[in-house]
Design goal:
homodimer, Arc Repressor Mutant, subunit A, 14 helices, 2 domains, DNA-binding, alpha/beta
DNA sequence: CAGAAATTATGAAATTTTATTTCATAATTA
DNA sequence: TAATTATGAAATAAAATTTCATAATTTCTG
């Protein structure tokens, strides 16, 4: 725990004098990190040894060490936490909040990811005869993006955001095909059906979804991405970004696995786009 | 700038002895913040005054102040920096790198965003008769996502990722329509044409692109999102995430502007999806 | 290009600043 | 009232900084 929070937390376990120091620190921690023990003692109207004891009580080695901890608490500015957009927020405020919670959720997602599962997925993708990406609604966007990326690798890849096409495609799949189904909730009935159809037809099914959901149970491999529950309350925001970043990882793993030759291919695709562009004049 | 980066940066402006200190610090900054000036001097095989001078050269008041800065640099764990994927990276490594640089780029994007422009864009969007999102390739994904979000608001919204449809739609636009064109490079010829067609037909054109590009010049408003140049070398990764987060901001601004009634509407859309889902049993 | 002069870098020692310990006393609680 | 705990003055210890002499390096000059 952050030492500032800790001070605020334990405020009522402190003695009278210690509380004085605590209050000075909490009221302007930024000043304290540049103050000597004498200055702080004077500011709080108590003696230097009291400040020192206060620091020790907080499990630091002494005043300098305490300042170090304090500096670290302060370093994050506002740490990347999920902050909720409020009715009266200005553009400035909600923009910051959205960016910050997106970052916080990416951090969370990264921690929750199992890299060995990513590795296995990349294995399967590199060996696939055909790759399909299926998603609905917000997850269709992720599937769309995946198609875009894998298309560049010059492998057979399709994407559908339409239930019927997904079903038809699933029914026509065969051994050696990889089907990637994407759904944050993992509870969309039709997608669960698609997954099970694909498996019945011997395709390998990779699920990008939450672990333990009905969809997850139908998949050969589950790439689960945790994000804070309530961020997607009204609109899928954080989960989608986390899924897209996961797609980046898969695509990157894919290119690495395929080696240098394939990276040249990527460059070729990129170069082929040049003529449709205005030249940069710099 | 982070003091650790600064040290790494200015490594070759240091004198011989200073470089010794720098190297010790860079090799284990975590140890240094708990070391006294004497201990650090000894470790680097130089004298204490040299350490002190080193600290001052980095614009700190002295050794204790330097340690404070160092502690702050370290507070974020590994700070979110752009780290490049390497040929021999394991899944673990490239996953971390991708997530970290995505976060770093979001941070960068947030700093570069002009919130007053966001505010104006939200203004225009709330007043639009019809909203169109156009993008090609990776930016089509962003347009697709935007359509998804704004569709929930129950406003007329379309998205096209096809040049011809975009042109036709642009030609048929009229005063009161808002056209959002999305392109990271801002140099895709056909999209620039679409933007100019839309303007000729009195639509308001909002560009989500890099400032100063040909596309930007055709737009009424430019929402520019800066990301590190080289992250999108082979595939658009970071820029796309930044653009999507920007879309989240616009959508959020939109709901806030429209007030409580509209948020109820959002909930209604969400509820209507329920029947197509498996119930959660928790 | 040698060698002197000037400049800059460095560390030993002294000084100053800062933090910590000790211990006596005050405040609080039992 | 005794026991415990909290507190600060003074002493001590530790750490950082300054001063200054010397070493290393660079620049200039013949």
């Amino acid at each position: 725990m952050n030492i500032l929070e800790k001070i605020a937390n334990e405020l009522d376990t402190f003695s009278k004098s210690e509380r004085k120091v605590a209050e000075v620190i909490l009221s302007s921690p930024g000043t304290v990190i540049h103050a000597s023990i004498a200055a702080l003692a004077k500011e709080a109207n108590i003696s230097e040894p009291t400040v020192n004891r206060f620091c020790r009580r907080l499990d630091t080695k002494g005043y300098p060490d305490f300042k170090l901890h304090l500096a670290q608490s302060l370093a994050n500015g506002t740490p990347y936490v999920n902050r909720h957009v409020d009715e009266n927020d200005t553009a400035e405020e909600y923009t910051s909040k959205i960016f910050e919670s997106t970052m916080a959720n990416l951090e969370l997602a990264r921690k929750s990811l199992d890299t060995s599962t990513i590795n296995r997925s990349v294995d399967l993708l590199t060996q696939a005869n055909k790759i399909s990406f299926f998603g609905l609604g917000a997850s269709a966007v992720v599937a769309h993006d995946a198609q875009n990326k894998f298309f560049r690798f010059n492998v057979p890849v399709v994407y559908f955001d339409d239930i019927l096409m997904q079903r038809m495609s699933a029914i026509n799949s065969r051994q050696g095909d990889v089907v990637v189904v994407i759904s944050h909730t993992g509870r969309t009935k039709s997608l669960v059906d698609v997954a099970s159809l694909a498996r019945e037809n011997d395709a390998t099914v990779i699920g990008i979804t939450t672990a333990g959901t009905p969809l997850a149970k139908e998949c050969n491999i589950v790439l689960s991405v945790d994000v804070a529950e309530d961020t997607d309350l009204y609109m899928p925001m954080a989960s989608r970004i986390a899924q897209l970043t996961l797609i980046d990882c898969l695509a990157t793993g894919f290119t690495l696995r395929r080696g240098t030759k394939f990276r040249d291919n990527l460059k070729k695709v990129k170069d082929s786009l040049r003529s449709s562009r205005f030249e940069r004049k710099d």
